[in-house]
Amino acid sequence: MNWFKENSVAVFTNIFELLAGVLLLINPLESAVKIVTAFGVFLVLLGITCIVRYFKSFPQRAAVEQTMAKGLIAFLLGGFCLLNYSWSTSFLSELKFFYGIAVLFLGISRIQIGCDMIRMKKERWRLTFLSAAVALLCAAVILWNPFTSATLWRFVGVSLIIAAVFDFIALFAAKNTRA
Hints:
The protein is an all-alpha fold and 179 residues long. The protein starts with a helix and ends with a helix. The radius of gyration is 17 Å and the shape is globular. 89% of the residues lie in helices and 0% in strands.
């Protein structure tokens, strides 16, 4: 149970990522409003969780982790998504671009994590590099945008599902490594 408490944000993020991917795969264009609304709820809950964590942690740790600031930002962004959910349909092309950039940054950060794992002589670093390669490939396709809008959103859905699966594998692999 302690593992789940420590990783609850990652677990819920992966579940959201998986569900959003499935929704985009099934019905890409009409799912945008639902996903933005669900993302808003997720951000509000994440914000509340971070703020509570701030007050429950030791002052020195809270100062380093900046959970209050992260929580307030998540809460405000979530509120914006909930109150202005209709903006998502008018900015679909921009959302794809920002999602592509986010996936690109995710792939780059996974390269560092893989290098860190090699330097610390951790097992399963190959999985991290495979995850980075898949993320970079998905980012390139999303940013290049060779598809129609609906097909691209389906590809975004597939990339979300793949990312969630890799994240779950990495999360449970880290759990098994520590155990």
